[in-house]
Amino acid sequence: MIIKNVHIFDGGPITNRSDIHISEAGIITAITESGTEEYGPDVVNGEGMLALPGLTDAHRHVWQAPFKGVASDMMLLEYLDKVAGNIASQISAEELYYINLYGYIQCALAGIATVFDWSHIMNSAEHADAAAQAALDSGLNVLFLHATSAIEREKYWNHSITRHDRYIEALVKKFGNMTPNVRIGMGMRGPEFAVMDVNRADIELARALQIPASMHIGCSLLGKINKPVMQLAEHGLLTETLNLVHCNTLSQEEMTLVGKAGCLVTITPEAEMQTGLGEPAARFMADVPGLKWSVGTDIPTSSTDSLLFQQRLLLQYYRSLVNHRVLENMEFPVQIPYASNQFFFDSMENANAYADLNTSAHIAVGSKACFSLFKWDAFSNEVFLRNPAFYYLQEACIDTIVINGKLARHRGEWLFHDLENIAMRVGDIAARIMRTI
Ligand SMILES: [Zn+2]
């Protein structure tokens, strides 16, 4: 396939029109200046469009997609009880398939081509199979993190002495090598929620299966009380295979250890600020050299689908923090703390490396062809051409979406699945459950 005549967003001033050449396998083979070749069946005219690289959301509970807004005024404990507990426990395996498929499509419509799906609705083996199958059928790149059941949450999340469900071994066997687009990982509890023997066993299981392991950590008071990173380090368990989500209330000493170990940190600014997890971990981005950080949306029940918004929120929060420090020193802030487009690319590069799904933060030869085409009319003026800050782009302007070399959406129409039917089905499920809570 060739996408012709597009302007490519690479962080600098927008220049010439380009043609993006894509192989059968979905890899970008060449990017050339637009010529005058004939059009054929495999040629898409991107005239008037800006190509933005496919985004990487490094932490999202995809199954919450049909319940938008339900937790927008909830603090952490209420959210855990009503959403992660009550709602999640009422969803059957068959329903989960459609709910997850719908959730992945919602990601794609927001320009996201790669998502870390932290699935804590593994209520049975059938639920795990259904959710992973949806990941496979979605066409997106998914790091599918098999986590806990939503039934009997107390048993899994309060000083738990229960190890990770061994069904993950079967899941890795079934889905681990089916496609280059889906990888199975472990969504483990970590020291704030499970005893150390359990954490050791879980991490050892993940290592034996050669899969990544992700945990929520540094959450609210739990981070302050438990010193979770110190615990992991003391037991020799802090390694680069870990993805540490949130990190709000870790100490400077702990974050230095995280930086040295090379773990991937994921910050989900909106959910953290709302639910009382603590300040987003921007201070560690500023103070720990080489920290591998990334951004996620977290809970669709209170955050919108927009990863561009989450990136923007964290960028400005980071700038505010650094500027504030300068002021505290009785100096005048004169240097921009982080250039916006550099921040945009950095926010995804570490996540892509961790996921190991051959996705790139850039539209580049050799990587999977993942990008969204934004209608150009809305912002094709000389000023924006020279200063194309990423956060002026609005998802509503996405016309065409290419994921792994295939047209997922074209001229506003979703092509991978019967979206209308899926949305209706999922709407009925959500309505049924909402009547019970
Ligand atoms: Zn989460």
Automatic annotation (TrEMBL):
<protein>
    <submittedName>
        <fullName>Cytosine/adenosine deaminase</fullName>
    </submittedName>
</protein>
<dbReference type="InterPro" id="IPR050287">
    <property type="entry name" value="MTA/SAH_deaminase"/>
</dbReference>
<keyword id="KW-0378">Hydrolase</keyword>
<feature type="domain" description="Amidohydrolase-related">
    <location>
        <begin position="51"/>
        <end position="407"/>
    </location>
</feature>
<dbReference type="InterPro" id="IPR011059">
    <property type="entry name" value="Metal-dep_hydrolase_composite"/>
</dbReference>
<dbReference type="InterPro" id="IPR006680">
    <property type="entry name" value="Amidohydro-rel"/>
</dbReference>
<dbReference type="InterPro" id="IPR032466">
    <property type="entry name" value="Metal_Hydrolase"/>
</dbReference>
<dbReference type="GO" id="GO:0016810">
    <property type="term" value="F:hydrolase activity, acting on carbon-nitrogen (but not peptide) bonds"/>
</dbReference>
<dbReference type="Pfam" id="PF01979">
    <property type="entry name" value="Amidohydro_1"/>
</dbReference>
